[in-house]
C-alpha cells in the first residue's frame, strides 16, 4: 500500500513536467484508484443482512453483503438491485448474468443469458428464466430441481410457496403453478395470454387472454390461488385494452379498469397539430374506450360502473364513492402535469354526482433538488375509506368526507405530504416548518414541536397510488412515527422516533450526509442503518438502535489517504431577498503564502451538496470535477442561486456577484484568475452572466439556453410538451407568460447581449439532446462568432444532454475542460486545439 502511494505521489509531482497526453493518462489512472459505496442499500426481511453496491471509476461493478450481527462480509458481482432470499441467500445481476450467493456456506453460483430471476423464500429456492425460454429452479445449494421449457413469463411473490409460469405448449397457452417439485396446469387457452400478474397481496392471479374468433373483445381471468386455484372472474373487456387494478379497503374490493388507447392512423406525409388538442404529439396516450367495474373477491360479485365514455374513474378507497373527471380538461401545458379540473364524486349506489371543483397539486420541498416538487397525487385517501384530502388552490388542504362533502379547510399554507394515523383520528403533515398534526374530529391543527423551522419527512409512511396516480392512500401501519429533520441552512440532518406516546432522539444532528433513501430499518423498527458520507469521508454503513448505541458496520475497505486533508469553508451572503450560502473548497496542499486561481460552478441551490463525498469519479455536477481541480491547485466555489422578481438571469447575476464579494475577502484567491462554469440551467445562467459581467477570466457553458423567447415557444421532445411550462411554473420561475411581461423575458435572454461577452468561452452540447435543444448552443456560438469573440464550441453528434450515457464523449469533454482551465487560469499554453482559436485571434 505504501509503495502504491509513493508511486502515485511521484506521478502527481511530475505532472507539470510531461506532455499533455501523458498528463491526461496520469489523471485517468489516478481516478481508477478511487471507489465508493453507492445506490440504495438493501436489507433482508429478518434484518440480518445488508447489501450495497460498490462503484469503481463511477461504474457499479460489485456488491457487498454484510451480516448485521457479526460483520461477516461477502462480495459478489452486481450492478443493480439485490434480492434477498430470507436470510439464507441473495441474488444479484450484472447485464444478463445472475449470481446466487448462499449466505450460510459462502458458495456462489453464476448463470448466463438470464431474462428474469426470482427467489422462492418460503422454500429456500430460486428460479432463473433464460433466453432459451427455460425456467430452472434451484435449491439454495445450487442443485437444479426442475427444468421447464417454452416458458414466456413468470409471476412470483415472497409470500407464496409456489410460482406461476406462462408456457406455450403444442399450440395452446398454459398457466402453470410449480414449487420446484410439483407442477400443474391451472389454466389453458387456445388463444394467447398477453398479461399475467399477481394481485391482492398475491392472493389472486390475473391474466388477459385473446378469445378465438372474436375481434371485439379479450377476456380477463382472475383466479383465487390461496388454496386450490379456481376461477372467480371471467370478464369480456375491449380488444387490446390495458387492465389495471386498484385495491379498496385492503383488498375487500377491487376497482378494475380496462382502457383501450386510440389506434390512430399516422399519415407519413403530414402531421396535423391542433390548437385545441390537449394531447399534442401524444395521441398514443388518448384513451378511446374506458370500462370500469367494482369486484368483490370474497363472493365474486361484479358490478359495472357506468359513466360517460370520456370520464375517468379513480379509487378513493371506497366501495361506494369514486373520483370522476375528464382527463386533461382545460389543460394548456402551463403546468408540467395536467391538473384535475371539474372533478366529481360519483355515488355508485345512488348513481349521482357531487361536484368537487378544480383540484391543484400541492408542492413540497425536495432535499435532493433543493426546490419544491409536486406531490405524487392530488388526492390522499384514508385507509378506512371515510376521508380524503385535496387542495382547491394549491396552497391549503381541504378535508372531505368520502361522499364529497367538505368537512373543513385547513387554514395554513406550506403543509406538504399528508399521512393518516394508524388509529384514523389524525393526519400528519410534512412541511418545511416541522411536523404538523390535524385532529380530524376536533378540527384542530397544531404543531408537533418536532422540527420547528426545518424540513420534515415521515420515513415509515406507506403510500399506495391508484393506477392513474391521481389518488393515493397514505397511512401509518403503526402508531410509531419515524421523522427525518433537515436543516437547510446548516445542511444538517437528524431523526426522531415517536414510540409509546413520546418522542425520542434516534440519530442526533449530524453534518454527515444521509440521503432520504439511505436510511433503512428492520421490520420492528428497533435497529436502523444509514449510509453516511461527507466531503472528506467516503460513504460507509452505520447502525443505530433505540438504546442510543451506534457504530460503524461497514466501510467497504475504501481508502482515501488524502480525504482528511481536504478543506472546505461556508460563506454566507444575501441576494434576491434571501440568505444564501457558498461552498469554498481549498486547493490540496494549500500554501497560505500563495495565490491560487478559482473556478466557480453555478446551478441553483448547492448548499445541500456540501457533504457529498468528493470522489473524482462523481458524475455530478456534470462536466465539473471538484476533487480533480483541488488536486491541480484550484479553489472551487459553489454559490447558491435563487430567483426573484427580476427574472432568472438577473437573479443569478445578483447572486453570483454577492457571492463573489463575500469569498474574495480570502487573500489567497487570485482575483484576476476566476472562471465560471455551468451545465443545463447552469449553462443558461453562465451564458447570461457572460453577457453582463467583467469579473471572470473565462467561461464554460454546457447545454444551456441562450434565447428565452425561442425556448419558451419551443416544443420539448424530452418532456413531450410545449416548453413554456418550464418558464411560467417550472425551473425558470418567471411566474408570468411572455405576453404579460415581454421586457422580463427580453432582459433575461442572453442572446440579445451576446456582443457584450468579453472573455473567452467554451461551449459544448450533445446533438441528440432532447432536453435543451442543442441548436440553442449553436445560436449562442453564431452570435459570438458574428461579433468576433473568442469562442470554441464542442458538438458531440451522438451525445445527449449530459453525456452520462456516452462515456467516450464525456471523457473527451472532461479532458478539454481541464485543459481550458489550465490554459486561461494557469497560463499553460501548450494546447493545440485552443491555440488554433486564441493565437490566431491575437496574431
UniProtKB/TrEMBL annotation:
It comes from the Bacteria. Residues 659-826 form the Peptidase S9 prolyl oligopeptidase catalytic domain. Coiled coil: none annotated. It holds the Pfam family Peptidase_S9. This is S9 family peptidase. One of its GO terms (biological process) is proteolysis. It comes from Chryseobacterium bernardetii. Keywords: Hydrolase.
Amino acid at each position: 500500500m505504501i509503495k502504491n502511494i509513493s508511486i502515485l505521489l511521484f506521478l502527481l509531482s511530475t505532472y507539470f513536467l510531461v506532455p499533455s497526453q501523458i498528463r491526461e493518462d496520469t489523471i485517468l489512472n489516478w481516478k481508477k484508484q478511487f471507489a465508493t459505496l453507492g445506490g440504495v442499500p438493501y436489507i433482508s426481511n429478518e434484518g440480518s443482512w445488508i447489501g450495497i453496491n460498490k462503484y469503481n471509476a463511477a461504474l457499479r461493478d460489485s456488491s457487498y453483503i454484510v451480516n448485521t450481527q457479526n460483520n461477516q462480509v461477502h462480495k459478489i458481482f452486481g450492478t443493480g438491485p439485490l434480492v434477498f432470499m430470507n436470510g439464507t441467500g441473495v441474488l444479484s445481476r450484472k447485464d444478463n448474468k445472475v449470481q446466487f450467493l448462499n449466505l450460510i456456506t459462502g458458495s456462489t453460483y453464476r448463470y448466463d443469458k438470464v431474462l428474469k430471476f426470482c427467489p422462492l423464500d418460503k422454500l429456500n429456492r430460486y428460479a432463473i428464466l433464460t433466453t432459451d425460454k427455460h425456467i430452472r429452479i434451484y435449491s439454495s445449494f445450487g442443485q437444479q430441481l426442475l427444468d421447464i421449457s417454452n416458458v414466456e413469463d413468470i409471476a412470483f411473490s415472497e409470500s407464496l410457496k409456489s410460482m406461476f409460469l406462462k408456457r406455450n405448449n403444442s399450440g395452446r397457452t398454459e398457466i402453470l403453478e410449480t414449487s420446484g417439485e410439483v407442477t400443474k396446469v391451472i389454466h389453458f387457452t387456445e388463444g394467447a395470454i398477453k398479461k399475467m400478474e399477481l394481485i391482492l397481496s398475491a392472493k389472486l392471479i390475473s391474466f388477459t387472454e385473446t378469445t378465438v374468433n372474436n375481434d371485439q373483445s379479450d377476456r380477463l381471468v382472475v383466479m383465487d390461488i390461496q388454496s386450490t386455484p379456481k376461477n372467480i372472474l371471467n370478464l369480456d373487456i375491449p380488444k387490446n385494452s390495458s387492465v389495471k387494478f386498484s385495491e379498496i379497503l385492503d383488498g375487500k374490493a377491487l376497482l378494475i379498469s380496462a382502457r383501450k388507447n386510440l389506434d390512430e392512423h399516422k399519415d407519413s406525409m403530414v402531421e396535423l397539430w391542433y390548437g385545441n388538442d390537449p394531447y399534442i404529439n401524444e395521441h398514443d396516450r388518448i384513451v378511446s374506450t374506458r370500462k370500469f367495474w367494482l369486484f368483490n373477491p370474497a363472493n365474486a360479485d361484479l358490478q359495472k360502473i357506468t359513466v360517460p365514455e370520456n370520464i375517468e374513474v379513480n379509487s378513493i378507497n371506497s366501495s361506494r364513492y369514486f373520483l370522476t373527471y375528464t382527463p386533461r380538461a382545460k389543460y394548456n401545458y402551463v403546468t408540467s402535469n395536467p391538473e384535475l379540473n371539474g372533478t366529481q364524486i360519483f355515488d355508485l349506489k345512488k348513481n349521482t354526482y357531487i361536484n368537487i371543483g378544480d383540484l391543484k397539486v400541492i408542492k413540497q420541498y425536495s432535499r435532493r433538488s433543493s426546490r419544491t416538487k409536486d406531490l405524487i397525487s392530488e388526492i390522499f385517501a384514508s385507509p378506512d375509506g371515510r376521508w380524503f384530502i385535496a387542495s382547491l388552490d394549491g396552497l391549503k388542504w381541504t378535508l372531505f368526507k368520502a361522499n364529497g362533502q367538505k368537512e373543513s379547510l385547513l387554514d395554513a399554507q406550506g403543509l406538504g405530504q399528508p399521512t393518516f394515523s394508524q388509529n384514523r383520528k389524525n393526519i400528519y403533515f410534512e412541511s418545511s416548518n416541522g411536523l404538523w398534526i390535524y385532529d380530524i374530529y376536533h378540527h384542530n391543527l397544531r404543531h408537533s414541536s418536532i422540527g420547528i423551522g426545518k424540513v420534515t419527512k415521515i420515513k415509515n409512511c406507506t403510500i399506495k397510488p391508484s393506477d392513474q396516480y391521481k389518488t393515493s392512500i397514505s397511512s401509518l401501519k403503526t402508531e410509531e412515527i419515524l421523522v427525518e429533520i433537515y436543516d437547510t441552512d446548516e445542511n444538517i440532518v437528524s431523526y426522531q422516533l415517536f414510540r409509546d406516546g413520546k418522542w425520542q432522539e434516534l440519530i442526533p444532528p449530524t453534518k454527515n450526509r444521509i440521503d432520504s433513501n439511505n436510511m433503512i430499518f428492520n421490520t420492528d423498527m428497533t435497529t436502523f442503518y444509514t449510509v453516511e458520507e461527507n466531503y472528506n469521508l467516503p460513504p460507509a454503513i452505520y447502525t443505530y438502535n433505540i438504546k442510543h448505541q451506534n457504530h460503524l458496520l461497514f466501510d467497504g475497505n475504501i481508502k482515501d489517504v488524502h480525504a482528511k486533508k481536504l478543506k472546505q469553508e461556508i460563506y454566507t451572503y444575501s441576494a434576491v431577498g434571501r440568505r444564501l450560502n457558498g461552498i469554498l473548497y481549498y486547493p490540496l496542499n494549500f500554501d497560505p503564502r500563495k495565490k491560487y486561481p478559482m473556478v466557480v460552478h453555478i446551478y441553483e441551490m448547492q448548499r445541500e451538496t456540501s457533504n457529498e463525498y468528493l470522489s473524482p469519479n462523481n458524475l455530478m455536477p456534470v462536466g465539473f470535477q471538484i476533487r480533480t481541480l483541488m488536486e491541480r491547485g484550484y479553489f472551487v466555489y459553489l454559490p447558491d442561486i435563487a430567483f426573484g422578481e427580476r427574472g432568472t438571469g438577473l437573479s443569478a447575476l445578483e447572486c453570483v456577484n454577492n457571492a463573489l464579494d463575500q469569498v474574495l475577502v480570502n487573500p489567497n484567491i487570485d482575483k484576476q484568475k476566476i472562471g465560471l462554469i455551468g451545465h443545463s440551467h447552469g449553462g443558461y445562467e453562465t451564458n447570461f452572466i457572460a453577457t453582463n459581467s467583467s469579473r471572470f477570466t473565462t467561461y464554460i457553458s454546457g447545454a444551456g439556453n441562450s434565447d428565452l423567447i425561442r425556448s419558451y415557444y419551443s416544443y420539448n421532445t424530452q418532456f413531450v410538451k410545449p416548453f413554456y411550462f418550464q418558464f411560467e411554473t417550472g425551473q425558470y420561475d418567471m411566474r408570468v407568460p411572455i405576453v404579460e411581461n415581454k421586457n422580463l423575458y427580453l432582459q433575461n435572454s442572453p442572446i440579445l447581449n451576446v456582443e457584450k461577452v468579453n472573455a473567452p468561452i467554451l461551449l459544448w452540447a450533445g446533438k441528440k439532446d432532447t432536453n435543451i435543444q442543442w441548436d440553442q448552443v449553436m445560436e449562442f456560438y453564431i452570435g459570438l462568432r458574428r461579433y468576433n469573440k473568442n469562442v470554441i464550441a464542442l458538438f458531440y453528434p451522438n451525445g445527449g444532454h449530459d453525456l452520462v450515457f456516452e462515456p467516450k464523449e464525456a471523457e473527451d469533454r472532461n479532458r478539454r475542460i481541464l485543459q481550458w482551465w489550465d490554459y486561461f487560469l494557469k497560463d499553460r499554453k501548450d494546447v493545440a486545439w485552443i491555440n488554433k482559436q486564441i493565437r490566431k485571434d491575437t496574431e
